[in-house]
Design a protein that fits this description.
Helix content: 55-70%
Number of strands: 1
Strand content: under 5%
Distance between the termini: 18 Å
Radius of gyration: 24 Å
Structural class: mainly alpha
Largest sheet: none
Number of domains: 3
Number of helices: 18
Order of helices and strands: HHHHHHHHHHHHHHHHHHE
Keywords: TPR repeat
Length: 399
């Protein structure tokens, strides 16, 4: 959906007070400022990583606007999104629910603070998950469908970009529902039929969306239709793999992490490693990317395969030499993931246990004293892997 579910944190006393006592500490000068300008300033602060300062201004705007007004609706959404950024899930949910009271169907225009966004956030922030999340997603889809119909009716050049944006959100929301029916609601009698209907509609809305094609692949994997899953993943990759990192058509980091897992699940290991190498170049502090890359290389070793080395003549490579090269590189990636795991105090114990298990098994085969040889940045011999920087996080989710 483009926006990852934030970690749930307990609200601080200061933030609780700002919600419960409206405007108690706000100066008259600030109260008299234009709430619209305050929200604009808050948005700039949020975009520049100053979420706490953004919250202060957005809260001032919320306290200054009349009740049940479009300005209040805009302020509620702004405050809620800042709380999401701060990890204050409960407070974010409270503000989005207040916004729903003012715009229960999403029929108020986005310019006035309405629209589908609050429903999509509530779907992701739901404490109950399952059917509760589905309900919020469906409200968002209905609101987006109405906006899309209006934009298509106007058919103006100015609406083209907005239309594509809304179609993207709608397709992702439909995929979000499908994912829930593949996981939390997989026991429902009509779960498979619902998934099929949802992905069909998502493909009609956005047939060339990498995210939609990934969801299609996930559904096909759950149906044990691996050839169809591979075809969908290949199509997804082709849409962006040759684009520069800054291109807006390149899926976001979490989406590509999920893609690498899916590629590994259907044994498209070389493709998965290419995705992970690119992710490492973009963020070499990602525990998950380093971990998945190490695991992927270990799986290649088990098949007696290795990424092609442009300096090595293919005729000289044997399954044994490829296995050795992949194991050495795998150990380097996994050790880097474990180093970062401790450094950033990562919390996925299963990832750590699996990485340690893999490294221990490789030490038995390769020997313990190969520290220099095992790093992905090693400059000599067949252990060198060009174009790799690094990152790794947690174990592949069960599909």
């Amino acid at each position: 959906m483009g926006k990852p579910r934030p970690h749930k944190k307990k609200a601080s006393k200061t933030r609780e007070k700002s919600v419960l006592s409206a405007g108690g500490s706000i100066s008259k000068r600030k109260m008299n400022e234009d709430p619209t300008k305050l929200l604009e300033q808050a948005t700039i602060l949020l975009q520049t990583g100053q979420a706490d300062a953004a919250l202060s201004l957005a809260q001032q705007a919320l306290d200054a606007v009349p009740a049940n007004s479009p300005a209040q609706l805009s302020s509620l959404n702004a405050v809620a999104e800042i709380y999401v950024e701060l990890g204050e899930v409960d407070l974010a949910r409270q503000h989005f629910l207040k916004a729903v009271e003012l715009d229960p169907t999403g029929s108020i225009s986005e310019a006035e603070g309405g629209g589908a966004e609050k429903f999509l956030w509530l779907a992701q922030l739901s404490e109950l998950g399952g059917k509760d999340s589905v309900q919020w997603f469906e409200k968002g889809v209905v609101a987006l469908r109405n906006v899309i119909q209006q934009l298509e009716a106007n058919n103006g050049a100015a609406q083209v970009m907005e239309l594509e944006e809304k179609k993207g959100k709608m397709a992702n929301a439909l995929c979000g529902v499908a994912e829930i029916y593949m996981t939390d609601l997989s026991w429902e009698e009509d779960a498979e039929a619902r998934c099929e209907n949802l992905i069909t509609e998502a493909l009609l809305v956005q047939p060339n969306s990498p995210e939609v094609l990934q969801t299609l692949a996930s559904i096909r994997i759950s149906q044990l239709r691996e050839d169809d899953a591979r075809a969908a993943l290949s199509r997804s990759l082709e849409l962006w793999k040759d684009l520069p990192p800054e291109d807006a058509r390149v899926p976001d980091f979490p989406t590509r992490i999920s893609l690498s897992r899916l590629l590994m699940e259907v044994s498209m290991l070389l493709e998965a490693l290419e995705v992970l190498e690119r992710l490492i170049l973009e963020d070499d502090q990602s525990v998950e990317a380093w971990y998945l890359g190490g695991w992927c290389l270990q799986l290649l070793a088990e098949k007696g395969e290795a990424p092609k080395d442009p300096e090595e003549e293919e005729s000289k490579e044997t399954p044994e030499s490829k296995r050795h090269a992949s194991l050495v590189a795998s150990r380097g990636w996994l050790k880097q993931s474990l180093t970062l795991y401790d450094l950033v105090q990562y919390e996925d114990e299963r990832l750590k246990e699996h990485a340690l298990e893999l490294v221990e098994a490789m030490n038995k085969e390769l020997g313990e004293d190969m520290e220099d040889e095992s790093g992905p940045e090693d400059a000599e011999g067949e252990e060198e892997w060009e174009g790799i920087e690094s990152d790794s996080d947690h174990e592949m989710a069960d599909s």
